[in-house]
Design goal:
Number of helices: 19
Shape: globular
Helix content: 25-40%
Length: 677
């Protein structure tokens, strides 16, 4: 056995499924070195997961593979639920692409997971990466500045020491990385079991609709594949008296369809290409990160397949982590940014587990009460378009947000009259209400149609977001004031000077032609004459939105003030270098000087009257809120009274001891009592 040592990389990724491939593609297109290893000698050819939700298609749009995925896949336009020969409900999933400007992809695209992985491997190759097969992680340890992993060649037994700045386990439900880190994986196992098979089905079944037969013994369903005649069959089964679960087979599926349909459906099953049994678990980790190692996808959470969330949630994990890892590895952010991966994704995993648990109990459970609710109440309701839209949106993952994240910040300046230099830029109450109803910091940034002012050609906001950069949208709000345009251009120019390629700026104007002021400054201008983008972003007045590389709003403000944005970027990222850090330090120094000055006054012999002192502390609070925002404001509110009480008692002890701590005020140095009034 030959051993190798000394291999270095930025990130070592374990597991080359959709999650590991997403992470590798995202790191490679950001110029970050990574190695992707997988223990399999050959790439899997079985379908396994097969449904891609709308948010995942948006991710693939950014990665550059969505057209290839859609070309190879097929869409389900409805699900028909049958009980015997009676149609219980036909749920029409209104999935017309482009039907809504903010959601370019709607519904579910069905594609064999093996083919999805093939498209992703091709893209990884274009980006200069690849998958190292027959490579198994057998041990790793963390050092001060790296993770040292021992990787074994499955075929030869030789080992290699790989030194990486970070390690990410995308190695599935039985994750070696998760177990080695000692992360808990608590949850429960459902009583239901599934059997599934991919096979040729000949009969009178629609090519674009799923069919599910329901009866007292359980459900059996059929989903179309893009390949003509090939379908996925999935059925719920239960252990017998001896605890045995029937093995998936062609004969079993023939019997289950005959029993649960209750009539001759005229289907001929043949040529199974994959058969599988699996139990259903509901489990998740307690942490997504431990030191320099992370887990993602099924290594972090597993749940019921009801609703098609598993693979999609894992891809979102990788998409969230990749840009943060890239910024840290490139020295453009501090390692503290990586803590936000768990902060943002752990609650999402919990919500997905709760959602799929509800789906499991309502659609799969054989409980008589739940079966009655499903067949008599829920399924008929699902025929209503409004209910269908709500269910489709819930499963699409478009509604996932990170509003509670430390990376999400809203900034609204007080309503005020316009300045003489910017006539017509006043923020009115109606403007603020529109802004409050718009996507908030932490929400997914919606798409919108507009035109490129330079070329006159059509474009979309997603076209502008595409790439590894932040995108700053500067909305003019429809004021059409040249001073306002000039202000937005100056903000764009300053941001580009400080952040370079990390932040790309776009001025969105509600006009049919490029305004004069931005034109003189060379800013990139998007024309929005129909106000589609302005309405979606609530920009009735001048506003700005900073879109993160993963398509979520990081910061937004009204009006488009530069200083709060720079403070945000300087506080959370290393973007802008010394400038942002210097400005933040200067503001911190101002706050410290204010506190020090007030303390000197508090201990002075000639103290101000109590109302004046209260006014001064209120001023300190106002300054603190202005400098640090609402995040630390309540800490100041709680802390300053305690500090004032401590100051009072210390001064009393210095002058009078503790004889009359709550008596009338006595200025010992002056030798005369002060009036309580």
């Amino acid at each position: 056995m030959n051993d190798r040592t000394g291999s270095d990389t930025d990130v070592l990724i374990v597991g080359a499924g959709p999650v590991g491939l997403t992470l590798a593609c995202e790191l490679r297109r950001r110029g970050v070195g990574c190695r992707l290893i997988d223990e399999y000698a050959e790439f899997p050819v079985t379908s396994r997961a097969l449904g891609l939700q709308a948010r995942t298609l948006e991710v693939f749009d950014d990665v550059g593979i969505v057209d290839a995925i859609i070309a190879q896949g097929t869409s389900i336009y409805g699900i028909t639920f049958l009980q015997g020969e009676r149609t219980v409900a036909t749920v029409k999933l209104r999935l017309d692409r482009g039907a809504r400007p903010d959601q370019p992809y709607r519904g579910v695209v069905i594609l064999n997971q093996a083919r999805i992985e093939g498209v992703m491997r091709d893209q990884l190759g274009v980006l200069g990466g690849g998958v190292e097969r027959s490579r198994e992680l057998v041990a790793f340890r963390e050092e001060a500045d790296a993770v040292v992993a021992t990787v074994k060649d499955v075929e030869t037994g030789a080992t290699e020491q790989i030194r990486a700045a970070y390690l990410v386990g995308c190695d599935g439900a039985h994750s070696f990385v998760r177990k080695a880190l000692g992360l808990t994986f608590e949850g429960e196992t459902y009583p239901e079991h599934f059997v599934l098979g991919d096979m040729e089905v000949d009969g009178d079944l629609p090519l674009d609709t799923a069919v599910a037969w329901l009866n007292e013994e359980g459900m059996v369903a059929s989903f179309p594949f893009p390949e003509l005649g090939l379908r996925r069959l999935i059925a719920v089964v239960y252990p017998d008296a001896a605890g045995e679960v029937p093995e998936a087979s062609l004969e079993l599926f023939r019997r289950l369809i005959a029993e649960r349909a209750g009539y001759d459906v005229g289907l001929r099953l043949s040529n199974p290409v994959w058969l599988s049994n699996f139990g259903v678990n509901r489990r998740m980790v307690d942490h997504y990160r431990k030191g320099r190692a992370f887990v993602a996808g099924d290594a972090a959470h597993i749940h019921s397949p009801s609703g098609g969330q598993g693979m999609n949630t894992g891809i979102q994990d990788a998409y969230n982590l990749a840009w943060k890892l890239a910024l840290v590895v490139r020295g453009r952010a501090t390692p503290a940014l990586l803590d936000t991966y768990e902060e943002e994704r752990l609650p999402v995993a919990g919500a997905v587990l709760n959602q799929t648990d509800t789906n499991q109990r309502l659609f799969i459970s054989n409980n008589p009460v739940l079966r009655f609710v499903r067949e008599r109440v829920l399924l008929p309701l699902m025929e209503m378009p409004a209910v269908t839209d709500a269910i489709v949106y819930r499963g699409s993952e478009l509604g996932i947000n990170y509003r509670g994240s430390s990376l999400a910040q809203d900034h609204e300046a007080p309503l005020r009259q316009p300045s003489p230099q910017r006539e017509g830029e006043r923020v009115r109450v109606v403007d603020r209400l529109a802004f409050l109803r718009a996507p908030r910091a932490g929400d997914r940034a919606p798409d919108a149609h507009c035109r490129d002012a330079a070329t006159g050609g059509p474009t979309t906001l997603f076209d502008q977001f595409r790439g590894p950069h932040f995108t700053l949208l500067l909305f003019d709000g429809g004021a059409h004031a040249e001073a306002g345009y000039a202000h937005l251009a100056s903000v764009a120019r300053r941001v580009e000077e400080l952040f370079g390629e990390d932040v790309e700026t776009r001025i969105v104007v509600s006009a049919n032609a490029r305004p004069a002021a931005p034109g003189r400054d060379g800013a990139v201008v998007l024309l929005d004459p129909n106000l589609e983008a302005h309405k979606l972003y609530g920009a009735k007045a001048e506003s700005l939105y900073l879109i993160r590389p993963d398509g979520y709003v990081g910061f937004r403000g009204q009006p488009a003030a530069l200083e709060p944005l720079l403070e945000y970027l300087g506080r959370l990222y290393a973007l802008g270098g010394d400038h942002c850090r210097r400005e933040t330090q200067e503001k911190t120094n101002v706050a410290l000087e204010t506190v020090e000055r007030e303390l000197r006054v508090a201990f002075s012999k000639e103290r101000s009257p109590i109302p004046f002192r209260i006014a001064k502390w209120i001023l300190v609070l106002a300054v603190a809120r202005r400098l640090y925002g609402t995040r630390w404001f309540w800490a100041w509110v709680a802390g300053l009274p305690l500090a004032g009480l401590a100051t009072h008692l210390a001064y009393r002890h210095k002058t009078r001891g503790w004889t009359r701590p709550w008596g009338g005020w006595q200025d010992v140095e002056a030798g005369r009592p002060r009036s309580k009034t």
